[in-house]
Amino acid sequence: MSRAGFCPNCGRALNQFENNKPVADFYCGNCSEEYELKSKHGEVGKKIMDGAYATMIERLQADNNPNFFFLTYDKSTLGVRNFLTIPKYFFVPAIIEKRKALASTARRAGWVGCNIDVSNIPELGKIFYVQNGVARSKDEVLDRWSKTEFIKSTGNIEAKGWLLDVLLCVERIKQDEFSLEDVYAFEGHLQAKHPSNNNVRAKIRQQLQFLRDKNVIQFLGRGRYRRMN
Ligand SMILES: [Zn+2]
Q: Which of 31, 102, 91, 35 is closest to 61 using CA atoms?
């Protein structure tokens, strides 16, 4: 991987950290991005187990928060089934799930781990090198990464949370062409996620404008939109 893998941010070869680096496994000597690698057999699934919950929540606010690589392999052939990267700016507290504390009989009694809820990360943020055994070109990986970069400059974690939540709703609409009403259908769901907000519809419209400005969706007029792929 250190020889074959390239940095999705700049395209240069990645280096492997020697050892004892608390969270990251790889880094790019060119652009300084860091990457944590997780792997498991089978499918990507909905959740990925990660380390300590408190460390993870702290990480989300830190400058050196690593990006994420995820590898799934076929249990019988050990061949790579999926290999994807998720940029660090897709990691918000809402997708970090607290696991139950380890029982008092465990060696690390009371330790609390976390799961990354990948089912609540927008598809935009899942950038595949290999998907279901099919490799994507390097150009495609770099292009897809660069299309997500606007998320990085979205401001505080609250503003980013809104943007990612509305993006997820837009992705969950079955058709590429949809109406404002289709997005308003998620109002209750968004209200539950942001209980202190008392104008969810205005917030939805604001995020849709932002997504249009970033070429994620297109406005067709008269309350109609189209997803750009
Ligand atoms: Zn790089």
A: 91
